[in-house]
Amino acid sequence: xxxxxxxxxxxxxxxxxxxxxxxxxxxxxxxxxxxxxxxxxxxxxxxxxxxxxxxxxxxxxxxxxxxxxxxxxxxxxxxxxxxxxxxxxxxxxxxxxxxxxxxxxxxxxxxxxxxxxxxxxxxxxxxxxxxxxxxxxxxxxxxxxxxxxxxxxxxxxxxxxxxxxxxxxxxxxxxxxxxxxxxxxxxxxxxxxxxxxxxxxxxxxxxxxxxxxxxxxxxxxxxxxxxxxxxxxxxxxxxxxxxxxxxxxxxxxxxxxxxxxxxxxxxxxxxxxxxxxxxxxxxxxxxxxxxxxxxxxxxxxxxxxxxxxxxxxxxxxxxxxxxxxxxxxxxxxxxxxxxxxxxxxxxxxxxxxxxxxxxxxxxxxxxxxxxxxxxxxxxxxxxxxxxxx
Length: 389
Description:
Blueprint lengths: L1 H28 L1 H18 L3 H9 L4 H23 L6 H25 L18 H26 L5 H28 L7 H50 L12 H6 L5 H19 L7 H11 L7 H18 L18 H14 L20
Helix pairs in contact: 1-2, 1-8, 2-4, 2-8, 4-5, 4-6, 5-6, 6-7, 7-8, 8-10, 8-13, 11-12, 12-13
């Protein structure tokens, strides 16, 4: 269990520092994110000094265990105070913020004074990498009370604000921060029991709790990054899946496209002309514009014929509509390429406002249904096209 706790703790510390480095530049530029970043920085420092390997390395370098523990405790209390300052609305509660700042300063000074008073009286051999810098009751009551107060307030305020905002990133950041505060409450309650001998075998489990707390703090900081990655993945999926349909349609109706398609969709993805999200949006709009143009080449009974063809071909019921649309669009495209003159437009059922989901469903059935319906007139000499008599 001790080895597992050490590994999980190391993973939590690495995740925290990676998140801090990754989000440093955008966080420090935006006041709304700066407080969260500084809060997580203090927590990361305290959690790092809690890791046995880190403590062992520092003691090997000549730093005393007592000094490491004291610094860790002071930074931990500073982190708890920063949590309180972060969750308090600076615009509405300036007096409360001043009170928290005064209380934080008093707690830090009290810990230093108590440690100086009792450090020389602590019995030899009782200190270890995970034991207190001082065993004095007041010292530990101040330390643990500061953590419990900070995390309890953070839990209540973060969860309450997460229910009031509609900004998805902020909701998830606040909720992850709140859940991390729950684990911090569990840790410090259990650590109090451990310090006074109420649960001797609890420490390895508490190390796992602290590591999970660190992972959640890192996750709360990385929510905007995760959202950006999810959006990029969605845009990449749209670009990749829509490409064959988009290429064929803009080739038939070139005036709707800002630029001609590349030779392959691999090149289209690897050699982007625009940011990925804009590329996906552009292909969606251009595909929809091409469909609007092709409605002038749709025959009145084409959709019903394509629907029957798809059913006979064994297409699943939930894909029949998109398969029929793919067949109709394929016939209209070949009519354009064959020089068939336009007629009164026949709206395509279900194709409204360029819905990406609808276009992706048509694109899925496009390879199988492109040539499902016959040409308007006799086949042209050019493969895949129709020509007028």
